[in-house]
Every structure is written in C-alpha cells, then in structure tokens.
Amino acid sequence: MNGIVHSQDESQKPLIIAHRGDSANAPENTAASIRSAVAAKADLIEFDVRETSDGVLMVFHDKDLKRYTGAKTTFEALGFEEVRKLDVGSWFDAEKTFAEERPPTFEEAVRFCLEGETMPLIERKSGPAEAYLKVIRDLKAEDRVIVQAFDWEFLRQLRKLAPEIVIGALGDKKPDAKRVAELKELRPQWIGWNQKYLTESSIDTFHDLGAKVAVWTVNDLARIRLFAAWGADGLITDRPGEAREAVIGNR
After folding, report:
1. Rounded Cα distance, 190 and 167, in Å
2. How far apart are CA 153 and CA 232, in angstroms?
3. With the CA atoms of 117, 159, 211 and 190 taken in that order, what torsion angle do they form, in degrees rounded to the nearest 10?
4. In whole angstroms, what is the distance from residue 175 CA to residue 64 CA?
5. C-alpha torsion sign, points 171, 177, 180, 182
6. Reported CATH class of domain 3-61+104-249
7. Which residue pairs from 29-33 have beta carbons closer than 8 angstroms and sit at least 24 positions apart in sequence?
8. Which residues are known catalytic residues?
9. pLDDT band at 20 (very low <50, low <70, confident <90, very high)
10. Which end of the chain is more exposed for a tag (fewer CB within 10 A), N or C?
11. Nearest 10 degrees: Cα torsion 205, 210, 216, 221
12. Helix, coil or strand: residue 90
C-alpha cells in the first residue's frame, strides 16, 4: 500500500486525507469518523494518538479534557479504563440513531483503516517509538502506514528502530533555511505543513528534498483547488468527500 507514497503518479494527485476521520460528518478521532472517511473514499485517514498513564496508545487529540468535560486534567494522567469511559461525541448518526462515541485504541483505529483498504496517517502526540512500533508490527502493517509527528526526534528514533516505516515531518512555522536544513538531514518521505506557511515555492523546496508534501488543514474549496494547482501531493481536510469533488472538477 505504501506505493501510494513511493510511486504516486500524476493521476493520483492530490491525495485526499480525512482530518481526524471524516470530522465534518462524525465526531472526530472516533470509529464513526474513520468509517465515514472510508465511505467518503478518502485516500488516507489522519488521526491523533496519545499514551495513557498505564501505557496504552489511544486515539485522542487534545492535551487535556477541557473540550469534553470542562476539566483541565491532562490526557496522559488518565488510565485506559478512564479514557474508555469518555464521551467524545454524542450524536445522531446517518440513521438518526443516538450514539455515544468512545476513544478507540491505536490498534483499533489502524484496523478500521486497513479493513476499509485506506491508509492510516498516524499523528503521534505522545508515547515512545517502541510502543507505536509494537502495535504496527503486531498488525504486520509496516508497509501500510505513515507515522508523522511535530517531534522530529521521535521520528529519528522510529526510523532507527524500523527504517521500513514511512515517516512524516510536521511543521507549523515558516519553512526557513534552518528548518529546511533539518529536513534535509532527517530525510522524511512525507512532509505535512500548516497551510498558513505553505507556498508554491516551499512545496517545490520540499519536493527537492525527495518528500511528498501534504497541506493541513484546508477546508475552503478554493484553497483546496489552489494547493492542488501548486502541486501539493496531499490535502488534509475535514471535508474529504467535498474536497475530492472539488479536485476532480478542477481537472
């Protein structure tokens, strides 16, 4: 499946990447949002992973629980059983059935993606490289995932342990000469950058480093078409279904 990264041809560009699953149509980072992204025919499904206090990798974005419970308790202070009880999205699904979503484990999220024949784009928020690698190897998914992080040292550790896994360097600032030099040393196959700081020129610069380039998080359809025209390889969006239509209509 990682041919999608190594040998992506022009007809595949840009890849449509569901941000935290199909988060415009289902609660983010849940089984429901992942399955909705599969149904929307996303090429990849991005989700966030944190480690509980007892060492379980779970799908969850925020540093604390404030958005869900009002508490400032950090996620990493919670054990698996506590996390599993969190309501991270009570909603009426497409069948108008009321559901309460709970955070899936990292393993479950990867399985949901692979069962839907969609590549998981795993954003590491916390937890050691060894823990991620164990889950990925247990699923025999080394060649079917991308692991990305803002922590580039984590990426170095993961590459040392498993050079066969595709790594992605995330950035949230202007890609100045210092950062480009760091990327040249790191040699990620994938670079994901904040749309605020991504230009046609910086996309070309990242391509010159031998990396595929994804832009996040872009929901405006005009901006989606612009980044596609600039040669971005991937569009990370909350609106995967609409993004695909916008790109197809622009060809």
Report:
1. 6
2. 25
3. 40
4. 29
5. negative
6. alpha beta
7. 29/59, 29/60, 29/61, 29/88, 29/103, 29/104, 30/59, 30/88, 30/89, 30/101, 30/102, 30/103, 30/104, 31/101, 31/104, 31/108, 31/109, 31/112, 32/89, 32/91, 32/93, 32/99, 32/101
8. 19, 61
9. very high
10. C
11. 80
12. strand
Tell me which amino acid residue 205 is. Answer: T
Q: Which tokens hold the place of 31?
A: 């089984």
∠ CA(194), CA(206), CA(226), 5° rounding?
55
- C-alpha 149: how far from chain center: 9
Distances (CA, A) of 237 to 9, 55, 76: 21, 30, 27
What's the rounded mean pLDDT across residues 110-123?
A: 98
- What are the residues facing 59 on neighbouring strands? 49
250 residue type, one letter: N
- The one-letter amino acid code at 1 reads M
- Tokens 């995932």 map to which residue? 145
Prediction pTM value: 0.95
- Residue found under tokens 């209509």: 249
Single out the residue of 251, 217, 237, 245 nearest to residue 10, CA to CA: 251
Confidence at 93, pLDDT banded by 50, 70, 90: confident
Q: State CA 63 to chain mean position distance.
A: 17
Q: Which 8-state DSSP code applies to residue 49?
A: E
Strand partners, 193: 171, 215
* Those residues with Cβ within 8 angstroms of residue 102's Cβ, 6 or more apart along the chain or in another chain: 30, 84, 85, 86, 87, 88
